[in-house]
Amino acid sequence: MSQGHVRVDDISIRFKGKQGPVTALAPTTLHLAPGSFTALIGPSGCGKSTLMNAIAGFVRPASGAITLDGREITGPSADVGVIFQQYALFPWFTALGNVTFGLKRLGLPKAELHERAMAALAEVGLAQHARKYPQELSGGMKQRVAIARTFAFGPKVMMMDEPFGALDAQTRVVMHDLLIDIWQKHRATVLFVTHDVDEALLLADRICVMSQAPGRIIRDYRLDLPRPRSLRAQAEVLLPIREEIISLLHPSHSKP
Amino acid sequence: MSDARETDRAATGASGLAAGLTGAAHLAKPLLSFGFILAIWVGVTAAGLVPDQIFPSPLSVWQATMEMATNGTLATDLAVSLRRAATGFAIGTTLGIALGLLTGRVALVRTLLNPFLTLLRPIPAIALVPVAIVWFGIGEGSKYFVISYTVFLTVWFNTHHGMEYIPDIYLRASRSLGASRMREFVQVVIPAAAPHIFAGIRLGVALAFLSLVAAELSGASSGLGYRLQEARQYIRTDRMFTLLIILGALGAVVDLVVHWLGKKLVHWQQG
C-alpha cells in the first residue's frame, strides 16, 4: 500500500514576535520510517506542536525541507491526517457527517460512502451513535469520531497533537488500546505529541525528547517491546528510560 | 458523563409535556406585565386627569382599532407596510450575506470596501429619506431603498464579523481532510459563520421595521407610518396608539419567529 516516509531535514521555524522574530524551533532533523509510531515529548512551549504543525503543512519552515515519500510538503493535504487535542469536529455535522466529510474526496458512490463511514465509526465502537451531534458526545467519544474521520480515508501519515490530553485517566487507557488497535490495522506513520512520559512509553516504538525552547531533539529512544504494554510487566526496560526522560524534562528535579 | 447524557436524550421525549408547561410559564410573565401596564392605563384615564384626546383610554383605542378595521384601512396599511418591510429585508439580507461572505473571504474586496462600509454604518435610516426621494421618487422604490440599505449594512457587518471569527482549527481540519476550497467554503466556512449571520438577520428584521416607519413618515400615501402621520393631522391619538401597538406587536412576533427559526437552523450554537 502507501508508504509514509517522512524526512524532516534541518528545518527551523520562526514566528513574528513583538520584539522581532522568535525562534520556535531550532534546526531539527527527524526521519520517520514508514508505519512507525514515534512519540515526541518535551516541556511545554518547546516547539513540539510547531514541528507537528510543520509536518501537517500548517506552518512553513524558515529553512530546511520536509518531504513525504520524496515530495516536499508545501501545505495541508489528505496525505497527512491530523488529530487535534480539541477534536476539531464540525458541530453542524453528526458523527456520521463528520466521517463522511473526510471521505467525500474519494468520489465514491453514495451507498459506498455511507457504508465506509459507518464501518469507520463501528471500528471505534460508535456505530450506534452515528446520528448524534458532537455536542451530544463525551470527550472520549468525540476523539473517537475524530480518529475514525481521519483514519477512514487512509492518510499515509498521522499527526496527533496531545490527542488525549483533555481526557480523564480512565478514558485515556481505553483510548490507548483503541488507537494501537486501529494503527496496527491501518499502519500509517504516526507522530504522537505528548507531555505525558507514561503515555509515550506505552504507545510508541520510538521516543524523541525535546529540549526547552527553542526546541531541538536531544534524545532518541527505540523501544522494541511487544504490545499491549504495561509499566509493571516491562519495568526492567521501561522504568530506567522513564527516569531518564523525567530528569531530561525537569533537570532541576533529577535525583542523584 | 456519557451515560448521563444518554439518559438526558432518552428523557427528551417524555419531557415534551414538561416543556409545554414551562412554555406556558414563560408566557405568564409577559402577560402579567401587560396586565399591570393596562391596569395603570385604565386607572390614569378613568381618573380623568388628562383629556381623552391627548391620552386616550384603552376603550377609545379599542374603538379606533375597530373603526380602522371595519373601514378597511388597517388591513390595507398592514399589507402595504409588510410588503415594503419584507421586500427591503429580502434585498438587504441577500446583498448583506453575499457581500459579507466576499469581504470575509477575499482580501482584495475587503481592502477596497470595508473602510467605506464602516463609515456608512453610523448614518441613520431617516437621514437617507431625502436622498432616496430624489433618486427613486415617492413611490415604492424609495421605501425599498431605505429599508434594504439599512438591513444590508447590519447583515453585512455581522456576516463579515462571523467570517473573521471562524476558528482556525476548523479550516486546518478541513484542509488536512483533503477538502477542496469550494467544499471548505460551503460546508465549513458558511456553517461556522452561521450563528453570526443569524444574529445579523435578527437585527436586520428589527431594523426593517424601524426604517419602514422612517421611510413612510415622509412621502407615502399608505402604510402604517403614513397612517401615523395622518392621525397627527387630525389629532387622533387613539389611532396613533393603535398603530404603535400594532408596530410593537408585529416586530415582537417576527423577532420570535426569526429567533425560533435560527435555533432550528443553527442548532449547534451554544447558549
UniProtKB/TrEMBL annotation, chain A:
Q: Which UniProt keywords apply?
A: ATP-binding, Nucleotide-binding, Transport
Keyword Transport applies: yes
Q: Could you identify this protein by its name? A: ABC transporter ATP-binding protein
Alphabetized PANTHER family for the sequence = ALIPHATIC SULFONATES IMPORT ATP-BINDING PROTEIN SSUB (PTHR42788:SF13), TAURINE IMPORT ATP-BINDING PROTEIN-RELATED (PTHR42788)
Superkingdom as given in the UniProt entry:
Bacteria
Domain (ABC transporter): residue spans on this chain: 6-237
Please give the InterPro entries that the UniProt record associates with this protein: AAA+_ATPase, ABC_transporter-like_ATP-bd, ABC_transporter-like_CS, ABC_transporter_ATP-bind, P-loop_NTPase
Q: Which family does it belong to?
A: Belongs to the ABC transporter superfamily.
Keyword Protein transport recorded: no
PROSITE patterns per record: ABC_TRANSPORTER_1, ABC_TRANSPORTER_2
Organism, as annotated: Cereibacter changlensis JA139
Single annotated GO MF: ATP binding
Automatic annotation (TrEMBL), chain B:
Pfam families linked to this entry: BPD_transp_1
Enumerate the subcellular locations listed in this protein's record, separating them with semicolons: Cell membrane
Lipid bilayer topology:
Multi-pass membrane protein
Listed CDD domains? TM_PBP2 (cd06261)
Transmembrane segments in this chain: where? 31-50, 85-107, 119-138, 207-228, 240-261
**Which GO terms are recorded in the biological process aspect for this UniProt protein?**
alkanesulfonate transmembrane transport
GO annotation, cellular component aspect: plasma membrane
| Domain ABC transmembrane type-1 intervals | 78-262
The keyword Membrane belongs to this UniProt entry's keyword annotation: yes
Name the keywords, alphabetized. Cell membrane, Membrane, Transmembrane, Transmembrane helix, Transport
**Which InterPro entries does this chain map to?**
MetI-like, MetI-like_sf
Function as written in the Swiss-Prot or TrEMBL entry: Probably part of an ABC transporter complex. Probably responsible for the translocation of the substrate across the membrane.
Q: Which family does it belong to?
A: Belongs to the binding-protein-dependent transport system permease family.
Protein known as:
ABC transporter permease
Species for this entry: Cereibacter changlensis JA139
